[in-house]
Amino acid sequence: MTALPSSSAHHPFPETASAINPSQDPSATIQPIANALHNPSQSTSSNSSHHHRPTSPIDDPLARDFPHIGKMCKEDLRDLLNDPDYFNAIFIRQPIVKDMLEKHESLISTNHALVERNLSLRPKLENLRDRVASSFNQTQQFISEFEILSKQQADLYQAFGESASRSRLLTALHESDKLAESLANQFAIEGLLEEEQFVKEFREERRKYHKRAWMANRWSEGAIRWD
């Protein structure tokens, strides 16, 4: 192989000479390549001649993994190490590096597509968020109204509850007894009522009294359930 001059103006790959810097590798997977390129003594035999001449292929891991680099002579390897642009041009043409760069670009394109899709969904998401917020506020309003109505219902129901109903029954029972006694006094002692009127009113009041007394007794015995 003919040795290449050390000047970067005569690189065999001028179009890619400054395309990538090794420190900007897309993946740590390509680091062994750079290490191998910087240690040619492990894959090349010593050559004491200062003239460029072809060298026989070297059978070692570097030569097997990177045949193009393994076939380089000592002078080419020295140029490869001393000239960053030449190194970059050779480096990015290695299949594993090209594969990693392609995967890197593919991932970037995929990420860009996801970003665009997410941005396209933003108006719908914002609209949905506003609708959820409106529904939440409306629900809170309904809850407040329900609590007010529940309190009003409880206040109204309290007057018809078991305790209040039994209290009214006992009060009416006591009033019926007092009224019947008052009618008897008006007829027998004061003479304010005719016999026919007294019998009619007294009988009616005692009928109410006995009905209420029967109900109160049944309630006290637990025969009446208030569900």
From TrEMBL:
<dbReference type="Pfam" id="PF07200">
    <property type="entry name" value="Mod_r"/>
</dbReference>
<keyword id="KW-0813">Transport</keyword>
<dbReference type="InterPro" id="IPR029012">
    <property type="entry name" value="Helix_hairpin_bin_sf"/>
</dbReference>
<keyword id="KW-0967">Endosome</keyword>
<feature type="region of interest" description="Disordered">
    <location>
        <begin position="1"/>
        <end position="64"/>
    </location>
</feature>
<feature type="domain" description="VPS37 C-terminal">
    <location>
        <begin position="143"/>
        <end position="227"/>
    </location>
</feature>
<dbReference type="GO" id="GO:0006612">
    <property type="term" value="P:protein targeting to membrane"/>
</dbReference>
<dbReference type="InterPro" id="IPR009851">
    <property type="entry name" value="Mod_r"/>
</dbReference>
<feature type="compositionally biased region" description="Low complexity">
    <location>
        <begin position="38"/>
        <end position="48"/>
    </location>
</feature>
<keyword id="KW-0653">Protein transport</keyword>
<comment type="similarity">
    <text>Belongs to the VPS37 family.</text>
</comment>
<dbReference type="GO" id="GO:0006623">
    <property type="term" value="P:protein targeting to vacuole"/>
</dbReference>
<dbReference type="GO" id="GO:0000813">
    <property type="term" value="C:ESCRT I complex"/>
</dbReference>
<feature type="compositionally biased region" description="Polar residues">
    <location>
        <begin position="18"/>
        <end position="32"/>
    </location>
</feature>
<protein>
    <recommendedName>
        <fullName>VPS37 C-terminal domain-containing protein</fullName>
    </recommendedName>
</protein>
<dbReference type="InterPro" id="IPR037202">
    <property type="entry name" value="ESCRT_assembly_dom"/>
</dbReference>
<dbReference type="GO" id="GO:0043162">
    <property type="term" value="P:ubiquitin-dependent protein catabolic process via the multivesicular body sorting pathway"/>
</dbReference>
